[in-house]
């Protein structure tokens, strides 16, 4: 009980300092709990949607996916003949059965040709209005579509794009463009995560999406009373037979959809939890520093406790009890803040088009338990070392001035251990850069990153002396005696300076590493574009949609073009000369002009020869693995087509970035073995202008594709910028998540300075008494903070650039051969660190300036 009272008294005696540490715990716990609540809520939303939209049994074509996704190489959904519906209705236990048609390989535009597809990446679905949809959608205005001139739209999409009854829209599919006017608007009865849905009548949907009547993508079956879904599935399967059809119960359909969405959600969840872990790691330094300084300031008090009979264990428990209280308070607040963060993320996702209702907010019992456990355990573990140090304080310390006793032996051991870890990490990075295979090198890279990071943390106090002196010489000497005092203050306790700088080092090391990798990827791809791409324009969809024949025709009809190259991709089963059969191998078909549009390096033969009839190319690694040479024959069984025996006419280098690993044949060869209605659509289209007509052709191409807003026309400059923007957006997202760790590190600097000011109260009073002004005092504290921040920045940026350069060496094995250090970003981060130091010192410097001189001198 005495230990608890002592802990409570000490905790509230330093509540201001504890509050900063509690905020670090709060932020870390909030990020963990917010991530869990957000992803659980998304799972709940999708589960409700899938459960509500799945019929008792669904029949679809055999090559349809389990999730109902209808994307295919030829842009049309896989379909079944209308006779299937008749057979299903004859099955035992069937109450009702209805044939439907839908597709996600579509683009919908308004009268101004603006794309109505969601910006969140959710699908655009066009299908026939049916009874299954009527269960989950309520028509709020107008009526369901009747006839080819009518279409119904979901309310969320109508509200977002200001659509109303009578407005004209166009549905662009592989078949062509169908226009209709809005006859009705229907609202979801469950939460719509962001899909845009348009409904046609069944006959119109068949013609618009498939191009032929009397076909269905799905048959939705409802069970009669007393018939289970499993029994109904058996009955329907018995009637249809197993060949050619896929039969699923509502649970199987929902599970397949859940697994598909769950993969993406898990990536998001674990990525965010990883950044939360980084914040926890940074918070550990803050907590260790806080308790180390509090223990140092209470050395005399602890000595007196030991002198009157308190055991080491009791002193240790007293400090750990304070940590426990800190962890509980910070974690409880963090759980509440995490729920608020999850709601904020839901609102943010709503701005991007993904609607998540707070009615589905899901807080599992495990979420607060995980948050509390993490916060408390991390806090107590971080306080263990200071608590252990407190327990070692002898009763004789009561007779000395407050201050933690130095342990020279421990410092020497720490230095040796830090050097060994740093050396081992450096050797791991060297092995990674020298690796011949990316997989092997990535293991050494991971090991090198971990060991070098731990090594720098351990050796931080040793580095602090040298680095701070250099920074002091360069930056602080200009400030005269105040600058020299700031330098001495930063050097007074190297362990504290090292721990505070290490907290900032971790976040900035990751920023520097990712900046180097991102810049190197852009520079390498740009270099490859300049060396290999010989076309003027690239036409493609930014969301992965295939290019419809109508859009290709519009490109070919554009004036001012010298040539247009189509580029297709499909899968095939390869039987190689060594007798092995490789299922689902990718093969690329292009026009012969592609050999000019992409100057791919070959190690044998000429790429142009691969576009001759019944010919192909393979890449170097594939040829080595299967003993393939020029003239070798490969049996290629095309998906949805017949088998060809193609002669290898070229072997391309595997050390390329663009189309790495591609194996080429001509479109004419593919047409010979794949029926016209099964021929895949173009992935890309390349166009080259006639000499001197590049600008005019660029403008004409954009005009020609005005009716197809899903496609972008880019010249090489546009393409490079788009690549840079994509990587930049990803890096900005990662930087935003790393900002949490940097905020926690800033709190650590604030806390260190605040406690340092209290520790030096008498010293500050004496300096003020002999003439140091408030302004000079505040400047001294600000300069000390800046030096500590720049110390952490130097370590972090140096370490991160080393990691990034090593990672680039591994990427070079995949063709990304250019190393580029983003000096503007590195410089901006370094300068920004100085401002971080200034910001962190505001409150401690202000409080120091307000200190009463006489009271400060009288402090013991």
What proportion strand? 15-25%
Outline the biggest β-sheet. Answer: 10 strands, mixed
Oligomer: single chain
Total beta strands = 24
Helical segment count:
26
**Rg value:** 34 Å
Calculate the mean pLDDT score and round it. 83
What is the CA–CA distance across the termini? 29 Å
Q: Low-confidence runs (pLDDT<50, min 5 residues)? A: 401-406
The coarse silhouette is globular
Instruction: Give the fraction of residues assigned to helices.
Output: 55-70%
Structural class: alpha+beta
Integer tally of domains: 4
Transmembrane segments: 270-296, 319-343, 363-387, 408-431, 443-476, 497-518, 733-758, 783-805, 825-846
Family: Belongs to the ABC-4 integral membrane protein family.
Protein name: ABC transporter permease
Region (Disordered): 60-80
Notable traits:
ten-stranded mixed beta sheet, transmembrane helix, alpha+beta, ABC3_permease_C, 24 strands, membrane, globular, 4 domains, eight-stranded mixed beta sheet, single chain, 860 residues
Can you walk through the features of this model?
Belongs to the ABC-4 integral membrane protein family. With about 850 residues, the chain is α+β, with helices and mostly antiparallel strands. It has four domains: about 1-55 and about 250-405, no CATH class; about 65-245, no CATH class; about 460-535 and about 715-860, no CATH class; about 545-710, no CATH class. Helix content is about 55%, strand content about 15%. The strands form four sheets. Strands 15, 16, 17, 18, 19, 20, 21, 22, 23 and 24 form a ten-stranded mixed beta sheet that branches. Strands 4, 5, 6, 7, 8, 9, 10 and 11 form an eight-stranded mixed beta sheet that branches. The chain has a four-stranded antiparallel beta sheet with strand order 3-13-1-14. A hairpin with a 5-residue loop joins strand 16 and strand 17. Helix 8 (about 250-295) packs parallel to helix 11 and helix 12 (about 410-435) packs parallel to helix 23. The longest helix is centred in the first third of the chain and has 48 residues, at about 250-295. The protein is globular.
